[in-house]
Amino acid sequence: MPLKYIFISLFLIHNLNAQTFFSESTPANNQISFAISSTPANIRAEEYGRIEVKARLEKGWFLYSIAPIEAEAAPLPTKLDLTLQGGSIAEGVFYETQAIIKHSPLFEIPLGYHRQKAVFYHNFRVPKQVVSRKNQASVSVAYQICSDKVCLPPTQVTLQHSFLIESGAARSDFSQPRYDVERIMPAFEWSWQTVQFLVLAFSSGLLALLTPCVFPMFPITVGYFQKQNKSSLWQAIVLFALGMIGTYVLLGVGVSSLMGAGAISNIAAHPFVNLGIGFLFIWFALGLMGYQTQLNFSLGHYLDSIGKKKWIDDKSATSWGAVFMGIAFTLIAFTCTMQFVGTLLVTAMFGHWLLPTLGMLMFATAFASPFLVLAGFPQLKRVWQTKSWVEVVKKVLGLLELAVAVKFISNADVILRWGFVNRPVMLVIWGAVSLYVAAFLFGWLPIFKYRLTRFSLTQKLSLIRGAWVVFFTALAAYLFIGLNQPLHGWIEAYLPANISQNQDEEALFEWLATPEEGLKEAERLGKLVFIDFTGYTCVNCRWMEKNIFPQPRIKEALENDFVLVQLHTDGGQDYQKWQELQIQRFQTVALPFYVILTPQDQVVATKAGLTSDAGEFLQFLQSKPPKL
Q1: Which neighbouring-strand residues pair with 512?
Q2: Quick one: which H or E segment has residue 111?
Q3: How far apart are CA 142 and CA 33, in angstroms?
């Protein structure tokens, strides 16, 4: 026998002998307690219910997960067996709250365990005809608990619970088995993972500066602070930054805590929010292109007037105007940063305040930093006024922001299922915008009376300007070609999702509409279940569908090894139900989000977000289910 296993055996024998010591000072039943219950309390015939076994542990002790442990001389996983009497029928297998997974240096494998609290669930069904109104549930729990220093011997307890079947018609709320689990937040600890999380939050704030909401804010910021008094300038700058940071933190954490983590994503996907953003971009675009040149600065003037009420002095007026500027900028940019913010704040909904607050603070600080720099150097305004190339860039960006506005309007169109801004319409609009940019740079067409020197035999184009003319002309031609054939995956990802009646004819796969259908079909076929949490307005979801799913090995694996289920969380008849399932069971609102389940509804693997590595995604699809 290898030396490692001899040591492990001696370790376990020592723990068995340690029982006498611990039974005298801290008996095993003091380290852990169990309670059993059922939901709903008033279940009826032809409804689904759930048996819940709750385990509470003393500080310093942990309980192993129900997942099998594949290692020699390994500790015993928790095992539960359910017996029902009175006519109710057990459905599926036990599943549990999210376990902590850490690598064990002793066994050299990852081990799953629970600290503080764990909940184990088992669904059951009450048939139309039951033997007795009073049913009995008996759960046998075989478990082993450990501390960081010692393990107690394996123990078995039996829990009893009675529940009544009441009369009445079956209710739709209990027509399907439940699979959500309680979210148990571990105590906050500083660790290397915490540092990595905060670095990610800061990096995401910097990346958010590249979103199309942000560019028009730069000239507004410079213009606003250029006219502030020098004596109070830096005070206003600091308050402006704090206004941005504070609004991000309070709005983000507050909305998630009061309305749920899904509220952030719901706001981002709401059709009228998308329409509002679309028209806001049109407003920005007109300002950049020179239509009413003071248009983009009117926001600053308006907020400044709010701060300069007569009942406060000039110094306070400057301060409040800067704060309102920071708040307004945050509200404008908030919808462009929903993906990171929404996922981060899931933890706030479940009562863990410190980590999401720190994350939002890092994110908002990074996002506010360039505005702080611009505000501190108002002389940079001359860059926007004196450099002719900047004027050309502003005109072109104004046209491109019109194209971006159409994207947000199409998001609303898809969710409301109007069908007006569909794929061909968007391609025509984008192609026309690209063609107009090329004509403007060539000197053929003006933008609000601003015309560049036209190319002629005596007036040649510069190399850079000519290259951009060729680029936008080629882009327009490519977009128009897309009316008859698919385009590159990145462009297809930004085009509207297909909501036509004949979409099944064009679909790459056949998708089922509910997890319950998928589990039943998987059990019949002996396959795994692949769930795709997606969204009609999710660009990354479209990218995966257009670039990764069609690849031969991925397509083959999805078709042959899985029953496919697709759940939309931002629109459709049951989107709130699927969003709640994603939050409650998987603790995320990230899109796309992929889950592999066994036919018994055990989680095999999950994967969040976009990946451009087909091999990585194939490795995820090849994840092995636990041995039951």
Answers
A1: 565
A2: strand 109-115
A3: 13
User: What does the alpha-carbon distance between residue 266 and residue 263 come to, in Å, rounded to a whole number?
Assistant: 5
User: Helix 314-334 vs helix 217-226: angle between axes, to the nearest 10 degrees?
Assistant: 180
Q: How do strand 48-57 and strand 32-39 relate by DSSP bridges?
A: antiparallel
Mapped onto helix, strand or coil, the DSSP state of residue 608 is strand
- DSSP class of 406: H
CA distance linking residue 398 with residue 400, whole number of Å: 5
pLDDT in tens, 221-241: 655 565 556 666 667 777 777
pLDDT tens sequence across 317-367: 455 666 776 666 666 665 555 555 655 555 544 445 666 677 777 877 887
Dihedral Cα 606, 612, 613, 618, nearest 10 deg: 40
Omega before 40 within 30 of 0, i.e. cis: yes
Amino acid, single-letter form, for residue 22:
F
Closest CA relative to residue 257, chosen from 173, 188, 351: 351
Quote the strand ranges of 144-256, DSSP E: 145-147, 155-164
Backbone torsions φ then ψ of 119, nearest 5 degrees: -130, 130
Q: How far apart are CA 432 and CA 472, in angstroms?
A: 10
- Cα-to-chain-centroid distance, residue 403: 26
**3-class secondary-structure state, position 203:** helix
DSSP alpha helices (H): ranges in 308-387? 314-334, 338-344, 346-349, 354-376, 381-386
Q: Which residue has the tokens 């409040």?
A: 320
What's the whole-model pTM score? 0.54
Q: Determine the Cα–Cα distance for residues 494 and 479; give it in Å rounded to an integer.
A: 12
What pLDDT band is residue 313 in, cutting at 50, 70 and 90? very low
Neighbours of 17 (CB within 10 A): 10
Rounded to the nearest integer, the mean pLDDT of the chain is 75
Residues in Cβ contact with 122 at an 8 Å cutoff, skipping those fewer than 6 apart:
50, 51, 80, 82, 90, 91, 92, 93, 94, 95, 139
Decide: 495 and 411 in contact? Cβ < 8 Å.
no
How many residues can be counted in the chain?
628
